[in-house]
Structure formats: structure tokens, C-alpha cells
Amino acid sequence: MPNNQDAKNGNAEKDLIDRIASGFVVESEEDMTAGYKKSLITQLMVQGDTELMSAPAYYLASKDAPTINSRIAVTAIIHDELGHANIAYRILEDLGVDKHWLVYGREPNQFKHPYGFDQPLEDWAEMVVANGFFDRAGITLLGDVLNNTSYGPLKRALVKVDREEILHLRHGESWMRRLAKAGGEAKDLLQRAVDWMFPMTLEWFGLPDGLKRHSGQLDYKLKGKTNDQLRQTWMEATVPLCEGIGIDVPAHYDDVAREFVLDYPFPCQYDPQEKRWDFDAPLSWDDVFQRWKARGPMNQRYTEMVQGDLGSIFGGRLW
After folding, report:
1. Which of the 8 DSSP states describes residue 55?
2. How far apart are CA 267 and CA 142, in angstroms?
3. Which end of the chain is more exposed for a tag (fewer CB within 10 A), N or C?
């Protein structure tokens, strides 16, 4: 049977959830319960780590930029992403998490970014699809947080982040259109990038709703939409974009279901060395978690860059 302290904690959690449902905005740690703080820290660590690990991925890919102006544009994006990571880590610092440890004290497999940023971006087509797909995923997720979060400091901070992410997205989508219009090898490279990055980004949103482990983020209004709703929001923009420029994606709009559906089993097997999905080899989500936990081929390299080389490139230690 629960003891008196467990009952007291449970009542405090329910009271906070009810207050948030009525419009209460959490402004400080004093307003939080232990459950709220834990969920918020988890959310912020994923947010900060994702922004941070995009920087080395984009930096290496920027070397394939077709013009100096293109490389300058990606360099500006990298600066933005590092700034966005700093925002998340700075808020975590207010919650008692050491920012120096977040960047420099963790092993590569302890970072909580999506698996997509463990993959190498090996040419300009992959660079711009990363902006078009991964940054669209970021806007989808953070836009939902911006509109719905009950944590006031994060809501205010995300106003800047949202505006800058939109510029990153526009950069990616405009270049995707240019490569598709160019045809030939440029369009072939674009299609190959989309082939592995489209399913990769769909994994970004996590477990399907029917399997989602309860995290409290919806109850605490740290987010407003479920994983599947967010996946739909991403596809509502991405599938028409690709169809409009003559690029194939394994998804279509179902008029009966009135939603986008996938043309392959989700999830399925992925070969990180070949960057190829096997649509004939469905997996369990436990298998996917094992792949995520093992991290991808660039995890070690990217971590070494953010903990050393990248800071030197941009003028010293990151923070």
C-alpha cells in the first residue's frame, strides 16, 4: 500500500496537472513537482542535444557547398544551431544541471539526439535534405512546444528559435527545388538522399501512439500533440513538397483515412553503412531501440568535434 508521502506526492502531481489544464504557467522550480521537473529535463536534453549534434554534421557537409555563398549560409545555420543548444542547456542550468557536464562530461552514447544525427551527410544533396527534412521535424516539434508548453521560460526562448529554424527550412527546401529542376546527376543525388532520410525522419517522432510509454509530457502540457499527430504534421508539408518536384517518397495521402499513410512496414531494417532501408524486413520497436542505443557510425566523431575541434573552429570552447 502507498505510504503517506506517496499519497502526498500523488496529490501534488494531480493538483499541478489540474492547474496547468486551467491555464497555469510554470515559471520557476518552486512551481514544479518532481514529476514535472523530470519530464521537462528530459525534453530539454533531447532538444539541446539535437541542436548541438546538428552542428558537426552540417559543418562536414558544408565542405561540399557549390559556392562560397552556399557555404556561408550553412555556417550561419551552424551558428544558429549552437545558439539553440545553448538556450536549452542554459535553461537546464537553471534546473540544476551543469552545462559544462552536458557538453564535455558525457560519453558519445549518452547524448540524446535522434539517430539521424549519427549519420554522415556526405554531399550537398544530403546537406539540403537535412535542412528540408530534419529542420522541418525540429520546427514541427518545437513549434508544438512553443504553442502549448506550460513552462514560461521555454515558451519565451523558443520565439527566437522558431524564427531561425524557419530560415534553415527555407534554405533546404529552396535547394531541393533547385536540384530537382537541374535534373540529371543532381536530381539523382537528391532522390538518393530522400530515400534514406525520409524514413529516418519519421523515426524522429518516436513510438506510435498505441505503443507510447507514458511520459507525462502531454499531462503537464510540455507538448500539445501526440507522436503520430506530429508525424502527420511533418508529412503534410513534406510529402507534397517531394511530389511537387518529382521526387518519390514511400508515403501517400489516403482519401478514406483522411491522413498520410506509409507504403512500407514501420519500423523496418536499416543498414547504416549502406544508408539503405529494407522495406521487406519489418522490425519490432525493441529492435529499433537497440539500434538507437548502439548509436550510429558518426556518433564518436561528432562528439569529439563538439567537445574539441568545432569549438576551435568557432573561436574556442563552445561554452
Report:
1. H
2. 24
3. N
User: What is residue 261's three-state secondary structure?
Assistant: strand
| Residues 61 and 3 sit within 8 Å (Cβ to Cβ) | no
258: how many CB neighbours lie within 10 A of its CB? 7
In angstroms, the CA 188 to CA 185 distance is 5
DSSP 172-217: HHHHHHHHHHH-HHHHHHHHHHHHHHHHHHHHHT-S-GGGPPP-ST
Which tens digit of pLDDT belongs to each residue from 123-154? 999 999 999 999 999 999 999 999 999 999 99
- Name the grid cell of 298: 558518426
Cβ atoms of 207 and 6 within 8 Å: the answer is no
Average pLDDT value for the chain: 94
Judge contact between 180 and 187, C-beta under 8 A.
Answer: yes
CA 120/CA 297 separation, integer angstroms: 8
Instruction: Name which of 51, 63, 50 is nearest 313 in CA terms.
Output: 63
Radius of gyration of the chain (CA): 20
Give the pLDDT confidence of 226-280 residue by residue, as tens digits. Answer: 999 999 999 999 999 999 999 999 999 999 999 999 999 999 999 999 999 999 9
CB 158 within 8 A of CB 89: no
Task: Decide: helix, strand or coil at residue 292.
Answer: helix
Residues in contact with 114: Cβ distance below 8 Å, sequence separation at least 6, in sequence order:
50, 137, 203, 204
If residue 269 lies in a helix (H) or strand (E), which one and from where to where? strand 268-271
pLDDT tens-digit readout, 33-58: 999 999 999 999 999 999 999 999 99
Q: Which fold has domain 25-313?
A: Ferritin (1.20.1260)
CA 269/CA 137 separation, integer angstroms:
21
Which pTM does this prediction carry? Answer: 0.93
Record the cell numbers describing residue 223, joined without a space.
Answer: 507538448
